[in-house]
Specification:
The structure is a homotetramer of 204-residue chains. With 204 residues, chain A is an alpha/beta fold. Among the domains of chain A are: 31 residues, no CATH class; 98 residues, Dna Topoisomerase Vi A Subunit, Chain: A, domain 2 (3-Layer(aba) Sandwich), CATH 3.40.1360. Helix content of chain A is 45%, strand content 13%. In chain A, strands 4-3-5-6 form a 4-stranded parallel beta sheet. In chain A, strand 3, helix 4 and strand 4 form a beta-alpha-beta unit. The radius of gyration of chain A is 21 Å and the shape is globular. The first copy, chain A, starts with a helix and ends with a helix.
Chain lengths: 204, 204, 204, 204
């Protein structure tokens, strides 16, 4: 196989990229300035070397060469230790941070549980259990499951609640999930029954 | 202009129909069975003759030849008189009814107020004012504004609240709006800040 | 079933219309001016009464109350009798007429043959055979199959050629099909192999 | 700016990639196996080092460490020297090669001329002129402009023909363009007038 083909096949593994666009990426790189490509390579290398996963919340963060293994959020003593938000992935955490609506801790779950029960799951359940046990002694009161509002997300929350019930009971932890209702931009006519029910229950 | 062109131009005025599809409608009708077309004409005629607008909630309903001017919902004495839901249009009312989440009264507003303040509006404000005054004596306690979760819907709710404030104060009526949050099917990553904020506030 | 439901169900049978849009059509008609609805009914009725299928090309046309059964194209003596264009439906004929690129006769086939061979077909093969036999004595030299550039269209052309071969041979008729190549707006990169081959063969 | 942000901004410059997907690329790389990332870096580096632009047709090709500066197509003595196909970019050349419909030479133009006449153009006109002069002595008879079937493509062909006219006249070269017609998958009803005209002219 040619180098162009091999590189195309690597780009096909990028999220949302098909064979045709992968090939366009290769031609784009071939015609790009040497300085752009050099910097791209340098940044990818640096990202793999210098970006670590936080030992507490598991999100990716850039080390400040201070030898620490905690991200800026987890090492910030001013954040509210009583509420922990469980999200599926880093991009979800970014979105919540941008909203400024949460001042507590985070935990990146690494995906959802497959509905079928089959298939390998990378969900960090043991790590979450350990986190709850530890944080319970540091003032944790509430765990908010901020997962996707779809069947897989709902199923994952259900299973997490089951698995974490003993720890919660022992430590007086409360579970909660994000409120459902009308998302910005939606019309009643096109909303499903569950969304309408939640929107009515959560009226204010 | 030919008859085919004239009929096409009428179909173009149907919601969501462009010139090409309008023409396909004409050819569809030309090749349809005579019985289908006859029934279509009969139904359209009947709809205009026998479907009335309810004198109370303004939704469309079919008369039962009982001489009444109230729809089945407004003439149902078992519905909760303490809550009134204001919706933009019939299709929204249908969606709420289908959800089974509201057992009170309805009021069809007939659209939203244009953000610019300009443009003719068909919103039934005087009729809503009259309705509130009357219902206040029949046990009405809460008016739920169930409008679209978009700028125009928010602006309309704001203006309605202003215009209805005197009546509300006089009669101890409470205003509320539908809860915002994650709609079924949405992911955190793709949600805007307002939706995330509401979802966190409405967590349960 | 309610009248609104029955009318919705009729609109669902219109080409490209789903349940939700059908219902919007009903509400649109209910809120429309009486004059608009009256004219719509009148036009639909007139269309069914006054629009006929041409006895020669089978396209729909409006009678001029002259008792004729031929459309304006088929009754126009100045059109080129040597070339006959076979199209699938009226809208295709309209598109060709608008291009001004064909000055001969037309024949509306009424659809394509299903690839599976199964399923009822409404293709007017006997009528086309009769047409060719007649026109062959009036100077017809070429039959152009102007069908869709897709597998069903290609299959239909193949079957028509087989079925019409004896008549063609007997009367020295030539068969042809529309040229393939780049349609306006297409790029080479996104074109399939057949289109590129045809575009190269038809280069000029 | 953080490393994650900087890398995201580089991916945004990839063709067809927005800010959100760029960020997903970064998280994808962070969570990818080290071996995948190492190979990606190695391949990108190799591509820039070992993939050259052919000195004759300007397409990208991988050197075989034989010291040559010609791609496999340009160094193949069996290809037809009488026809030269001018394409906009490598991906177009790939598409033509895959169709197997062209056995002659290629020239990668590097884009199209902007319709406005403004804007920097990277079109290789001087190189094409030189190529035609040389090839004319090696049996070249026809130059096929295989550009996009859109206004910019048509305009570029027009300008190229003007600029190359003296060389063509001097050397008895013929110019041609790809045939227009129905692309695979298109229906007559949705085709523009030019496409229908071409399809009728190119009927066979």
């Amino acid at each position: 196989m040619s180098l162009i083909d091999r590189l195309s096949q690597q780009f096909v593994r990028f999220p949302g990229i098909g064979a045709r666009q992968a090939r366009r990426f290769v031609y784009f790189l071939l015609s790009a300035d040497k300085s752009f490509v050099d910097e791209l390579i340098r940044n990818i290398k640096k990202a793999h070397d210098e970006v670590l996963q936080c030992a507490v919340c598991f999100r990716y963060f850039e080390t400040q060469n201070n030898g620490g293994f905690l991200c800026t959020l987890c090492s910030d003593k001013n954040r509210d230790a009583s509420v922990l938000l469980v999200v599926e992935k880093d991009a979800d955490l970014d979105a919540v941070q941008k909203s400024g609506a949460h001042s507590g801790g985070y935990f990146v779950l690494n995906g959802r549980l497959p509905l079928s029960g089959e298939g390998k799951s990378f969900v960090r359940l043991p790590e979450l259990q350990e986190r709850l046990r530890k944080e319970a002694h540091n003032g944790l009161k509430e765990v908010v499951f901020a997962l996707s509002a779809n069947p897989e997300g709902d199923y994952t929350v259900l299973e997490l609640k089951k698995a974490l019930a003993p720890i919660a009971q022992e430590n007086n932890l409360v579970f909660s999930t994000l409120g459902r209702g009308l998302s910005t931009g939606t019309e009643l006519e096109y909303s499903d029954e569950d969304t309408i029910k939640s929107a009515l229950q959560n009226r204010h």
